[in-house]
Specification:
There is one protein chain. By secondary structure, this protein is an alpha+beta fold. It has 5 helices and 11 strands. It has 2 domains: about 80 residues, Gcn5-related N-acetyltransferase (GNAT) (Aminopeptidase, 3-Layer(aba) Sandwich), CATH 3.40.630; about 130 residues, Nucleoside Triphosphate Pyrophosphohydrolase, CATH 3.90.79.10. A hairpin with a 3-residue loop joins strand 4 and strand 5. The chain starts with a strand and ends in a 21-residue tail after the last helix.
């Protein structure tokens, strides 16, 4: 088994060099821990096919840190002064305000009664702009280009109890034809008169509020800034 030193005074096991048995894993982990000098954190990712390794690590005081659908990352403090960085704490989504004259692009899903703005969660390693384009296209078939971030909503108790950060963006439609590709979730998509949307008792208050605010304050928006960043990302101001 091989470990890689990271820039945060920690070490991470190379996932491609995991041993073939739990007994071998335990022996090598103990040997590594005894040999580390001045390291703060010991990280190891366990693929789902090696889930039987997890009890070995928790018995050695490794803690769960974060997971994906096919792996679990665990970490162990090698020093009491070590600080474990936070894992993901929020789900982040995007919604789109797309207008065509007096018409607003809306969808109806299988959960809510009324129409709402198209949108959804941002995928791992996906930009806000790419997520916006993808979600609108999947739900309506309309191709759009990002314009600005118009509103930020922070909601508690999301789908799995986690907080939800929701970015409502304005976008320009480059096509108009409606085709629903995400039919497992969306049952209808259409262009609707903006006033009909705002006056409907089935439109939720948040959607009404952000659309009214955008229409009344067209200049109060966060736009993409061309800034050289140290890490990959996006900046809006």
């Amino acid at each position: 088994m091989r470990v890689i030193t990271n820039r945060y005074d920690g070490v991470t096991v190379d996932i491609d060099t995991l041993p073939s048995s739990s007994a071998e894993l335990e022996r090598e982990i103990v040997e590594f821990i005894e040999s580390f000098n001045n390291k703060k954190l010991f990280w190891i990712k366990i693929p789902i096919e090696n889930a039987d390794f997890i009890p070995v690590l928790t018995n050695l005081d490794f803690e769960f840190h974060h997971c994906s659908s096919d792996s679990l990352m665990l970490v162990k403090k090698l020093s009491q002064e070590s600080t474990i960085p936070l894992a993901e704490t929020h789900a982040v989504g995007v919604g789109a305000i797309v207008c065509n004259g007096d018409q607003l692009l809306v969808v109806k899903d299988r959960i809510a009664n009324g129409y709402k703005l198209p949108g959804g969660y941002i995928d791992t390693n996906e930009t806000i702009k790419d997520a916006l384009r993808r979600e609108v296209f999947e739900e309506t078939g309309v191709k759009v280009e990002f314009e600005s971030i118009a509103n930020i909503g922070h909601f508690m108790n999301g789908q799995f109890g986690e907080p939800n950060l929701y970015l409502v963006c304005t976008a320009k439609a480059t096509t108009k034809k409606i085709i629903i590709y995400d039919s497992s979730e969306i049952i209808e998509a259409k262009w609707i008169d903006i006033n009909e949307f705002l006056n409907s008792s089935e439109t939720n208050n948040y959607n009404k509020s952000v659309v009214r605010t955008v229409l009344a304050n067209e200049d109060l928006k966060l736009t993409d800034q061309a800034i050289s960043l140290r890490v990959s990302g996006e900046v809006f101001s």
